[in-house]
Amino acid sequence: MSRLSIVLVDDHTLFRKGLAELLESQGAVNVSAITGNPAEVSDLLREKTPDVLILDLNIGGTDGIQVMQALRAEGHDLPVLILTVSEAEEDMARALRNGAKGYLLKSMEPDEVVDAIIRAARGETVVAPGMTAKLVRMLDNKGNSATSLLESLTQREREILSHLAKGESNKAIARQLDISYDTVKLHVRHILAKLNLSSRVEAAVFAVEHKLGPGGKG
Fold first, then answer.
1. Residue 104 backbone class (left: φ over 0; alpha: ψ -120 to 50; beta: rest)
2. Residue 189: HSE in the Cβ half-sphere, 13 Å Cα cutoff
3. In angstroms, what CA-CA distances link 131 with 1, 34, 37, 123, 156?
4. Which of 77, 95, 129 is the last residue of a domain?
5. Do 105 and 150 have their domain in common?
6. What is the CATH classification number for the domain harbouring 202?
7. What is the sign of the dihedral through the CA atoms of 114, 118, 120 and 125?
């Protein structure tokens, strides 16, 4: 199995160098470039063409999420994992709502970060284990009845939601259900709208919390 390539962006020199060494030692990841300068990121992505970008939430006074938005506007569409010390629910929500494929904490073990990188490269959305309860609380605070929300879904939407709960990508869901990729995308969009959610990971947590099984039966 070939190693996944990543670019690591963090403004703390010792941290990014130490993390790069730890990730490399795990064997599954190749750190192709590291930088503490957000202005260099776009050029690095074109030069290195990594599989995943790991981006600090705050880079020397620069908002990492704004950096991510600027990269998206330039046409960079690789998975972005936000890596931060912030355990604030609002930071996690903002990152996920703006297209991050994951929200990781700097307190995570290297093997956990590697696992998150692998999953993000597969198209999954990942959240640090320590943030899961906060994500669930965010969903609970939306104030709508889970029963009525689930009843608003069609049987196909419930089926797709159960696959989202397992972290499967749209392509994987399309293959398993023998429907088109675009059809899955449309269903996911409808699911998020009906459940008043903002991301796939929120939908996945909602499904797990409300025991929506693999067969789509809650």
1. beta
2. 6
3. 30, 26, 27, 20, 30
4. 129
5. no
6. 1.10.10.10
7. negative
Domain ranges, residue 155: 142-209
pLDDT digits (tens, 9 = 90+) for 35-61: 999 999 999 999 999 999 999 999 988
Judge contact between 119 and 107, C-beta under 8 A.
Answer: no
| Tens of pLDDT, residues 171-188 | 999 999 999 999 999 999
Take residue 3 and report the two structure tokens written for it. 């190693």
Question: What is the band of 98 on the pLDDT scale with cuts at 50, 70, 90?
Answer: confident
- Structural tokens at position 1: 């199995």
Under DSSP, the state recorded for 177 is H
State residue 1's pLDDT score. Answer: 55
Residues facing 105 on adjacent strands: 84
DSSP reduced 3-state for 12: coil
pLDDT, tens digit, for every residue of 71-80?
A: 988 999 999 9
pTM for the model stands at 0.65
Enclosing H/E stretch for 8? strand 4-9
Choose among 66, 64, 43, 40: nearest CA to 54. Answer: 64
